[in-house]
Amino acid sequence: xTVQALEKIIIAGIELKLSISTEPLRPLLxxxxxxxxxxxxxxxxxxxxTWELKDNSLYLIDFNGRLRHREVKLxxxxxxxxxxxxxxxxxxxxxxxxxxxxxxxxIGAGYYPIYPxxxxxxxxxxxxxxxxxxxxxxxxxxxxxxxxxxxxxEYKVVSEDILKVTKxxxxxxxxxxxxxxxxxxxxxxxxILQYLHTYPKALSDLKIKDLITPQELYxxxxxxxxxxxxxxxxxxxxxxxxWIPIQRNGYDYFIDMSDxxxxxxxxxxxxxxxxxxxxxxxxxESITTLMLSDEDKIxxxxxxxxxxxxxxxxYLF
Length: 317
Fold this sequence. Notes:
The protein has helices at residues 26-32, 167-181, 183-196, 200-205, 217-230, 233-238, 287-291, 300-316, and strands at 8-11, 14-18, 47-54, 57-67, 70-73, 86-87, 93-99, 104-107, 111-114, 117-124, 127-143, 152-164, 243-245, 253-256, 264-270, 277-284. By secondary structure, the chain is of the alpha+beta class. The longest helix is centred in the C-terminal third of the chain and has 17 residues, at 300-316.
């Protein structure tokens, strides 16, 4: 059996996956008598939604599905604008949310990823009423096979630890998972910061002040995730939790750790053109360019001037 596409849920700005058994949209579809057409063997539901828990409520924030020969978007499920989140007032039940990296592949009647932890969020008409955190303990057990002579071995849950948690405790747990998830990239960036601190002239030429140290990296990222979770509107849409603010004071320059080249991004607010909005400029497509700038004899002062001209040239001509 093909692994099914899981729906997404965002909590504190961090994207997680809903369990395959959790379908918050089903009550609304059954009420309206709507049945979506499966797009392929990876999505027998025929649709994928993106949800968000915020302000103690569940919202549908994005949607893609197909009814016969036409696509269905979020705006088709609501009388509001397509960019507006839709509160899931039709849903009462349990949201089962995967936490942690896939640890085992369960092979038996189907092929499923197994996650070490789970959040169970009780919802009443779109409102959060309680949260449980489950931690599973697995054991490898032998399962006789009717199709082949050799026995199959599967990981089964033999016990689980269950703890009732508050909203803040849930967010702390998810932030900790995020840090563990990105640990390889954070370790690489730690070495990058250590290297950059050996070239203060390069940072001075670029006017990048108060570069964080490797020792400050993890705390800096935890604080950024917390701040990002508080953002709303255009800031929430623009910034990303996997950007690392590289200055102690201010949020002008970031390293994007979702890109293996670790580009340096400059974020700035565009107030010359309406509607006002945030923009980003790539200062360096790859961190390697900056790290080798001395060896490659790059004039960083001129490089910075060129980037400023590039940034504002549309207002000059």
